[in-house]
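Lecture notes, structural biology module. Today: joint structure prediction for complexes of two components.
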Amino acid sequence: MHNSSQPRTDAPSAASEPVIEVRGLAKEYRVFDKPEGLMASVTGLFNRKSRVVEALRGVDLRVEKGEFVAMLGPNGAGKTTFLKLLSGIITPTRGSATVLGSVPWERTDDFRRRFALVMGQRNQLWWDLPAAESFRLHKEIYRIDTPRFERTRDELVDLLDVRKLLLRPVRDLSLGERMKLELVAALLHEPEVLFLDEPTIGLDVVAQHALHRFLAHVQAERQMTVILTTHYMKDVAALCKRLVVVTQGSILYDGSLEQIVDRFTSHKIVTLDLDAPPDRAAIDRLGFPCEIRGPQVILRIDRTRIADVLPGILRGQGVRDVSVEDVPLEEIVAEMFRSGSTAGTDGATGAPR
Amino acid sequence: MTAAASHSPPSGFLARRLQALRVWWTMLVICLEERLVYRGDFVLGTLMRFLPIVTQVFLWTAVFGATSTGSIAGYSRNDIVAYYLLTMVSRAFSSMPGLASGIARSIRDGSIKKYLVQPVDYVGYLLAARIAHKLVYYAVATLPFAGVFLFCREYFPPIPDWTTIGAFVLSLVLSFLLGFFMEATLGMLGFWFLEVSSIVFAYMLVQYMLSGHMFPLDMLRGIPTGVAGVSVADVVRFLPFEYTAYFPAAVWLGKVQGAELVRSLLVEAAWVGVMIVACRIAWWRGTRRYSAFGG
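The predicted structure, tokenised, for the full assembly:
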């Protein structure tokens, strides 16, 4: 269910068929707990204790053509499970999904030619061979005709500035270089849908930036539909208008990056730079939660009251500078992660239970 | 640009087959390149394989020295040496080092996912990789093989007629396919069991005894099964194992001829067919299980 109260700025047309449509998608795993100790291991041979883990609990999502969606969540939230379901690696316990009109886990060749999955640490490139060889294989597997293959490859390679790496065995490349070539391999057949599972994990800032620029460019140019999972707010801020926050297998929030701030915080952060370290009691009298760092005072003030109280504060002694900011996204999301599923009830969309 | 439009599938059955063959050929070439990366290790491994044959020759020389008959189950000492050298040729086609364990490993560590996501046939890829493996192996091993055969030429009967040579070659090609599909099927048990190495080990043991790799299977002729008139050899003949070592050697040595040769080749081909189907079923059911339980 896509909550219709969520205005979606980047959907090209509400009437068009969604590229990805997911309803009540759930995945349960049976895991076997192995108790500690040798005796327990022996008894475990005959009587294994299993329990069911809900990796995904009835998720609904609708993604239109050309959307770039970020899925944010802590480890074990179900992000990777979700991408595995959408790319047909696993079958769901309940629910349905269509991607480009196909049921992913039927794994038809037609469907598999139209999307790509990049999993951060797993490589589709041949370890001992130069990437150019893997590209050549992709050309055949995905039936790309030669002129198109060469054009696409050259374009992608130049965008990422990796031409000189093409002939070097992949095992000799750095993680960042490998990731770039993985992306080229994934995009050679011009997939309509791209799933990226933590593409920036382990990369340095420069490499992260390069990937961000590249992904933003290619996505915009090709009008590709992209779902990206990540831990990093930087990825989200750089790439996506739409943010889906997942914890414990449910969607907590689905909407625009800006709205999450409005929806989940009631206050702004007001930072005052003073001439000298202030008197604690005087600050406390203002009646707002505060933090004092030397001559700096950080106040959390209710958004609706900012206009009323700020002039009074500024008239006070020795205020040199002031800034009013939203609560950092990291903090909001971290708070959402912490509160976990309980926040789902008052969350934006919240998956139905 | 709409990607869908440019992905027009080739029309017609033949065109699709040709396309599949092209993919497969590219895979073969790339697998060959990959194999050549490790050529040094490969040469050493290949040459080491010649050591066991030397101990076999010594062993059987001692066995024949201790008996006065000069013939065991219709084999003279020379026949035995020739037999062992020929089973080495059979095994060069039918043995699949690392195939089953490699499949099981890729299931365990998740690299199998790649073949679920890409429009590519995993078994076809494995076959291409194995043919590449074998081609490089033959390139390296042909010379030492030729040397050994030349050195041992007096142990061999005269070179057989063309029909026999043809049957020999056919039996080798079938033994490659049989060995491949048996081990690939075995490896796919990895979808059900975390570790297949003990299963592979048990298989190797049975294979070693019943393929004729350990001794010529004619020696089982005298061993009764309990059913009147049926020896162990009669049973083993209908199992797939002997086709991976004994059978090609026996063909070259002229021990299987005429109608029996035709019948045996048909049995071998039937086993290849059975194992191809078994392998497909294992893949199909295995991936379904993988999708349902893990991934």
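Point to remember: Residues 14-293 of chain B form one domain.
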